Amino acid sequence: MNKNGTKKKHRIMRLLAGLPLSLLYLLSDIAYPIIYYIIRYRRRLVRENLTCSFPEKNTQEIIRLEKAFYRNLCDIFIEAFKCLNITDQEMRRRVEVVNAELPERIAAKGKNVFMLLGHCGCWEWAQEVCTHYKNPKKNCEIYKQIGSPYFASLMHEVRSRWNTTQIEMRQTVRTMLQMNAQGEPFLCGFIQDQRPDIKAKDSVNFLNQQTWYVPGAEEIAKKVNAELVYLNIEKPSRGHYRLTFTEMQQTEEDQNGPFPNSRCFWRLLEQNIRQQPEIWLWSHNRWYK
What we know:
Helix 3 crosses helix 4 (59-82). The two termini are 35 Å apart. It is built from eleven helices and nine strands. A hairpin with a 2-residue loop joins strand 8 and strand 9 (240-247). By secondary structure, it is α/β, with parallel strands linked by helices. It has a seven-stranded mixed sheet with strand order 1-9-8-2-5-3-4. A two-stranded antiparallel ribbon has the order 6-7. The chain has one domain (3-279).
């Protein structure tokens, strides 16, 4: 697609995104039965993930949770789309940030901040945290390149509303070292619960299953003098989120492994998920099924 065609489509998308969320959620309500009952998008994988993660739940409880997840999934698409055209005032009203002084305290020590989170709720909205602290002044996020050039450019525009530096995953270490050399603290967000594309170095018991992972953030943090924090994500009601900066206080069990901060992350993420299981991304093939 040529640049003019892409720009025209983006303008149309921005106009549609300007509709109130109350109207856009009607599209989510329409999409839910289509995705769940007709397309049956990854139904088998989601059912298996839920069943293995919550062996204490009976079939009816799993099905209720499964349906709640698909409703949330449809909302996530709408909320990410809304980023194309949403005011700062509305975003402030919809996203509560708790303990924003934590990254400020870390930056005051001259350290960088690595914010670890999982695919809970609309993770794109998690970037709103950078409007709630004065330091670090620089913010960045890691992303994985999308195959479709059009959707890649669209997602770039979605993420650009917060003026954060976007770093393609393969350039992470090089870019982090360059930013650290500038001498000004920065905060970088890492979504850490993806299935690893490269050979994993350690595993944890996560949601009742052996889970292999790559401790990327923890290893990079050592190279750039960064302190790790966890971002807990809650969804009190539709279209509203509570994001809480949480210190990563390691337990004795965390310290028994080779990567204590990473193990602490998985433990905190599981606690986060068990609070509201329906808001996690159960359609991701995390356990190679």
